[in-house]
Design brief:
The protein is built from eight helices and no strands. By secondary structure, the chain is an all-alpha fold. The longest helix has 12 residues.
């Protein structure tokens, strides 16, 4: 799997559109499309933000290395969806911006 494919897969795993990802990164939808189609790639200054928004390691995103700690996170948080209400909450959470996610988590704590 190439960088454009991993980028698209990470975005889709969060249920984000190209427009939503572009908004988070302060770039256009067409920029995201160019990255996902291999016509261009993000600059170094965007990589930390891309990592934070997508929640994946740069090693995985750029090099294709397996996601570090994925099995530990799954067992630690037992992220299995048990019903439609939980699935809807998870889908809504994944569509939130990073700042809104942080705000929501702060409210829950």
């Amino acid at each position: 799997m190439s960088f454009p494919e991993r980028l698209k897969a990470a975005r889709l795993a969060l249920g984000m559109t190209q427009e939503q990802l572009g908004f988070e990164l302060e770039v256009t939808k067409s920029t995201i499309s160019a990255w996902e189609n291999g016509r261009d790639s993000p600059g170094f200054r965007l990589l930390p933000k891309l990592k934070a928004v997508l929640g994946v390691s740069l090693d995985h995103l750029i090099c294709g290395d397996p996601v570090e700690g994925a099995s530990e996170l799954k067992s630690k948080y037992d992220a299995q969806v048990r019903n439609d209400a939980e699935a809807q909450l998870l889908k809504g959470y994944r569509r939130l911006s990073v700042k809104r996610r942080q705000g929501l988590l702060a409210m829950i704590d």
